Amino acid sequence: IMVSPFCGDRHLDDPALDGFYGQLLADLALPCSLDTAPPAGVLAQRRASATEEFVFLLNFTSEPQRIALGAGGYRNLLEQRDEQGELELPGFGATVLQRPILGRPAELPE
């Protein structure tokens, strides 16, 4: 299947791209990095092994951003603390979150 986010010789604007890629993710049943979409200007990327997942959060705005973490909690590896519910990421800030997959405990780095 070949899909393209372009219409003729014009690029789609941000809301149209959000709709296009959102529908593509749903159609392909791809997992999202977080349970809810991060705010505009924040990138969330997920990487996983068989036992744990990592979420990399990057704030590309100058303003602090509040990110809903959804169900369960994470270990903030940069701050060495547990995070639940919501996280505030400073302007141009970044962090790495970790948690076990499927309730299997994963060893945390010391």
Shape: globular
Number of helix segments? 1
- Note the run of SSEs as H and E: EEHEEEEE
Strand percentage lies at 35-45%
Helical residue percent band:
10-25%
Structural category is mainly beta
Q: Report the major sheet.
A: 5 strands, antiparallel
* Order of strands, widest sheet: 3-4-7-5-6
Number of strands: 7
Mean pLDDT level: 84
Separation of the first and last Cα atoms? 45 Å
| Uncertain residue segments | none
Radius of gyration: 16 Å
Task: Give the helices and strands, then pairings.
Blueprint: E1 6-7, E2 10-11, H1 14-28, E3 42-48, E4 52-59, E5 65-76, E6 81-89, E7 94-100
Antiparallel strand pairs: 1-2, 3-4, 4-7, 5-6, 5-7
